[in-house]
Amino acid sequence: MNLKYIFDAITPENIKNIPVIRSAMDIFIQNLEKNAKVSKDIRKIYESDNENVKIALIKTYLNSLYNVISKAQTNKVIKNKLDEHELLDVPLKTKITSILNEENSIVWKVQKQKTGTKVGIEYAYNLAMYLETGSQVSDFNIEEVQPFHFKTDGSLFKEMYEAVVKPISHPIGFTYDYSQVIKDSITDFFGVNILYDFSKIEVRCFTTGRFDVFTDNEDDALIKADFLTRINPLTNAKFTESEFYAQVNINYNKVVKEYLNFTIDRRLYKCVIFNDDTVLEQYTNPIEVKYRTYSNYANELLDPWGDLNLQFYFRGDIQKLPPQKGE
Question: Which pTM value belongs to this model?
Answer without folding.
Answer: 0.51
